[in-house]
Amino acid sequence: MDPPVMRFGVGVSDHREGGVMMDGYWDAVEHHRKEWLGLGLPFDPFEECRAALGAEWPGGVSVGRRGGREMGSGVAREPNQGFQVHFDDALREFSGDLLDATLVAQFAFNAYISVSESGGETIVWRHLWGPADEAFRLPGSYGYAEAVVGEAESIELSPEIGEAVLINPRYFHAVRPSQGSRRIALGFAVGLSTTGELLAWG
To answer: Which among 41, 52, 53, 93 is least surrounded, fewest beta carbons within 10 Å?
Structure first.
């Protein structure tokens, strides 16, 4: 993608075509799981994040399933050159239900394990996608020109190491380029299902 983002893990949005999740996602998830095991970590960082997030939620947070198969658990990303203005919405981006459970809301979770000396802020605008916004989409890109948000109210987030942020990714958001040290976050999507479950996926 442009600008390039270093990552370790699998995001389902990278395996989407015409609103359909491609079968190659499952091979990528299996490869990713083997790579994580190869790191020899004494714990699963995504499991730790889910446990912390679900500590105050009945039933906690579990990894979502599709066709009975467990989705990927998350992605470590290093967007030192930032992310373009965009939104994330499984209900809009995928035909039918992405998970076996029907979702009614979606959140984006990011836990920061390295932050830049300056820059790297996450900006969230109070602006949901509408058909007229497609006039601002950048050709051949997942992103939009920043003019898409107009004069919408916004908030700027600059988390510290060890902090986590939960946002509504249906609102347009972006990440500014980092300067100095690296910006690395562990992230995954979290969906609220019609049964009240919180389900995560990468």
So the answer is: 41
Domain total of the chain: 1
Q: Which domain holds residue 62?
A: 6-201
pTM score above 0.90: yes
Q: Is 45 exposed, middle or buried (0-12, 13-18, 19+ CB in 10 A)?
A: middle
Q: What is the dihedral of CA 75, 76, 80, 81, to 10 degrees?
A: -10
129 Cβ contact list (under 8 Å, min separation 6):
87, 89, 92, 170, 172
How many CB atoms are closer than 10 A to CB 79?
23
Read off the CATH number of the domain in which 126 is found. 2.60.120
Give the pLDDT confidence of 119-163 residue by residue, as tens digits: 999 999 999 999 999 999 999 899 999 999 999 999 999 999 999
Reported as a single tens digit per residue, the pLDDT across 106-125 is 999 999 999 998 999 999 99
